[in-house]
Structure formats: C-alpha cells, structure tokens
Amino acid sequence: MIATRRSLLTAAGGLMIPTGVFAAPASPVVRTTYGPVRGTLEAGIKVFRGVRYGADNGPRRFQPPVPPTPWTRIADATAYGLASPQAGGDEGPQSEDCLFLNVWTPALADGGKRPVMVYLHGGAYSGGSGSAPLYDGGRLCRRGDVVVVTINHRLNVFGYGYLAKLAGPAFAGSGNAGMDDVVLALRWVRDNIAAFGGDPGRVMLFGQSGGGAKIATLMAMPGAQGLFQAAATMSGQQVTASGPLHATERMKLLLAAVGLTPDRAAEVATLPTGKLIEGLAVADPFTPGRLYFGPVLDGAALPRHPFYPDASPLGLKIPMIIGNAHDETRAFLAHSKPDPFAMGWADVPARIAAEMRVDIDPDAVVAAYRALYPAYSPTDVFFAATTAGRSWRGAIIEAEERARAGAPAWVYQQDLPTTIEGGRLKAMHMSDIALAFDNLAAPGSLTAPSPGAQAVADAMSDSFIALARTGDPNHPKLPAWPKYELDRRATLVFDLDTRVVDDPRGAERRLFSAVPYIQPGT
Fold this sequence. Notes:
By secondary structure, this protein is of the alpha/beta class. Helix content is 27%, strand content 17%. The protein contains 15 helices and 16 strands. The strands form two sheets. The protein has an eleven-stranded mixed sheet with strand order 5-6-8-10-9-11-12-13-14-15-16, with helices on both faces. A hairpin with a 2-residue loop joins β2 and β3. α10 (362-372) packs across α11. The longest helix has 20 residues, at 451-470. It is globular, with a radius of gyration of 23 Å. Mean pLDDT is 94; it is low at 1-24.
C-alpha cells in the first residue's frame, strides 16, 4: 500500500537529550547530525532501522533530495522505513517519503573506526528496498567487526523519470534523482558513521544486480567522489546509461499513460502517486518488458557513461570486486513459456534470439555451444547462451576496461548451486547474496545451510570484509586471488572447491565479443 503519512519522525517519550551517545541495555541512542535516534540491541549488535537521512520527497517530486529538518526529541529507529513506491506490494508500506537507512554495529563511538559496508539493493532501479531479511547485517558485524548500512531511495519514474527536455530547467536533475538520493545517504554516512563506531574513511559499497549497477554509476558521478573507498558489484553492471533521447521517449509514453500530453509534462509532479505507478505498466519501446527507468546521461550529475568508451577516470583508484553467477538467467527465464526445461533443439535458436539482447546469428550460437559442450541439453544451451550474451557480458567489459586502465579489480564467478526447485536453477542470479552476507539461514536465501555452503559463505563474506578493511579481498581462507589482467584473466570460482581459473568460459567470451554489447535498458 502507499502510505499517506509523510513523516516517521515522531517524538519518543518527549525527553530532550544532550549531544553524545547513550547505550541503555536494550535501547542504544545515538545523536546524529539531524537529531537523536533510538535503536535496539539484538544478539549483541546495535541495530538502528528507519533512520531518516533525507526530507520527504512527496512535495519535491523529481527534484534533488535535501537533508531532513533537524529534530530534538529522540526518534525511534526500531522499524524499517517506508520503501519507494513501486509496482507490487512485496516491499510492504510504500511512500515518496522513503529516504531512510539502517545501521548494524558492534559498538557505538568507541574509537573503533571499523570498516563500513554499505549495501545497495537490487531490483533493476524499479523495485526493492534495503529492508529484506536477507540483507540483515548482524552476522557480517559479528564475523568481521564491521558496520553495515542498507538504504532506501527513490526508484523507477520517481527516481529516474527524465523531464528536462519536456518540462524545462526546473526538472534538470530528474533523470538521476534516485542516484542523488544515494549520494545524500553516503554523505550521511560520512558525517555520522563515527558515532556508530565506523570509519568514514573506509567505506565500501557492495550491491547485487541493480545495486551493483548503481555502484558502477556512482563511480562516474562527480558528486559521489570521496564518499567511498572500495566497491564490490555482484551480477550488476552499468556499462552505459540511458541517453537523453531514449529517456525522454520513455517519459512521453508514461505521460500518455496517465493522460498528459508533452506540453503538460510539468503536471506529472502533482499527480497522485498511485497514478504514476499505473503508468509503469506500459511496454518499453527499446527493451522487452515494462517501461525502464534508470540513470540518464544528463551532462551534470552523470556527465559520461560509466564504462564507455572506457572506465570512468573518476573510479580508477577505487579497488573493486566484479562478480557474476554462472547461471544468471535461470532466475529470469526458468518459468517462462513455453517451458524451457521441455524444449527441443529446434526451439532453441528462436528462444535465445529474444533473450540475448545482442544481434548475433542464433543458429551459429547454438552450433558453437553444441561443439563446446557436447553433453549440454537444449535447456542447458538456452540458459548458458542467454547468460553469456545478456548478463555476463557487461561484467567482462567492466573488468577489461579496468585492466586496460591499470585499475585494481578482482573478478569472481559464483558456481555453488542453489538448492531450491531441486537444484535445477543452479548458480542463478541472486544466489551470491546470502553468501556475501553470511545469511544462508535467512528468509530469502536460495541455498540451504550445509557445511559446504557455509564454507563458501565464509570465503566470500570474508573477502568482502577484507576489501572493506584493506582494499584487497585476499584472506587466509582463499587461494591467492590475483588481480584481473588481460594476459591471464584470473577469476576466483566460488564453489565447494573454491579455486582460481584463468579465463573461465573463454570460448563463450570470445564468441560474444565479436558483436557490440547493448546495456539492457539503454
């Protein structure tokens, strides 16, 4: 449901408190730069949920975010904040008043200067929030003595609806408002995280799918410079952003869906929230599915593409992990129709042609895969080819551009299979989230706890913690993990026998490198 209440900053107890940190046994209190907040104590970890970092966006729709109005009475930070409006109700209560973050920390203002791990959620810029149980930071805090932060921010048309060419200068920043929200959250981290036991000079961003794409985008944004010192992307790339013409065309379609002509574009800022959500159901003119809204090459907040024609110079000094899952598209396409698990060889070319997002002869692709992997079934070829041509390609491009620039990058491939649906989805998209958070037993995990899976979770989560702490993901539970360089293409394969492999799936990489890559949605 869309919440109508605009503010969660209610007074708790009406008690004024002085500057500083107060830790009652079950209700730790921290004074942020905007006002005091009260959290909870959970298994020794101090948890603050629903901390406001920005003002209500409802009255400022499509405008850059602003800091909240300071408060003096203690505000409860014991429940997750509202999610950005989005299609579907999976994220619970939603509102344009959605600029909230969550913090897990082992200690408060003790001078510990712990590394800070800020997670950006996935959802293809259109859905999700930082409130999923799978993103609970408690286990990371305990195993690595780190501070974990997750955030909510504007999504879909509210965060990326580009109106600059339709409604004038007053909406110049509308195409990247959601990214500006993230920047505002990172400024909050810079200014407040020391009070939560963290080090503002050691902030690592990590994110899966759309969250990884957001990180790649931030690495090309001048406004984000200096706000984080390391990055890890998980099945999420942003080689190019939406161009202003395509972004404008998408906005025209949404306007038409809500009954507005382009000359009345400014009126979209005052329509009911639910009306805009209904407009998102329109088919996208450039990519399969509903209207896509994501970062826009607007010449200001985002002055260039993140990884085209090369890696943005703004991000070259940031050490980076770039990872993907081996069987990405089993998450997207396993339940498509007709059933991909029942297809024959004659069905495969047409099915992959619709899903690869690149212009390549599908018959030649199928022939190449049958030669490379004689034991593969039609189903196996379908998922392998769509993964390589659609999901994996962007990660390879980013790693290659980092290598060409001499920028530090470590590449992984997640091979540990999931355990849902009898294991037929293998190492699908999203299967590395529980591993990175060490949350195999959490709701939403795709892999059941077992000694072998826990060993992989130990290896992956410790590598992320190591990157946050030192700028290098190597640690004693891993084989030596070299940086990614073009002469070797060393890749760490996370599996029951975690190992380094040079240029895994190299023949598949070469097959698709012969044609231009098209970033999905752009």
